[in-house]
Amino acid sequence: MAKILVIHGPNLNLLGGREVDIYGKFTLQEIDAELKKIAKVEKVELETFQSNHEGEIVEKIGKAKGKFDCILINPAAYTHTSVAIRDAISAVAIPTIEVHISNIYAREDFRRTSLIAPVAVGQVSGFGMNSYKLGLKAAIDIAKRRPH
Ligand code: DQA
Predict the structure, then answer these.
(1) Is the pTM of this model over 0.85?
(2) Is the pLDDT of residue 35 over 90?
(3) Domain count, the chain
(4) Taking the alpha carbons of 124, 125, 126, 129 in that order, is the dihedral positive or negative?
């Protein structure tokens, strides 16, 4: 069965009460529940992981090699700063899809640069919870095409 790893970066554990005008009122648990529903229907395995620590995310990606067919990641603030997460994605060479709840190009200048985008298959940004659902659809498509 195809396996997808979902990674949520820093502060996404605060969703639901965090800048709700930008990020909405849904919680991380609600996102994960929605993604798991889709995964069940599509018959793919899904593991979800959240961390506020760059090194933990780097280690999770490093250990994903040979275990996961695709990674769906919202690197949150690390999108704009983390060479280490970018390098981890490059190193494991697992197709990776970057998602953002908000439109990172319609906000502060520093959010317009993603260090992750050049090593991702693609990016979904600005559709709220739907960014994750659209990203997962793409991830499922990629994961199912990979040989098992
Ligand atoms: C975010 C956008 C980032 O700029 C920000 O640091 C986040 C969340 C998003 O999902 O819109 O924490 O990745």
Answers:
(1) yes
(2) yes
(3) 1
(4) positive
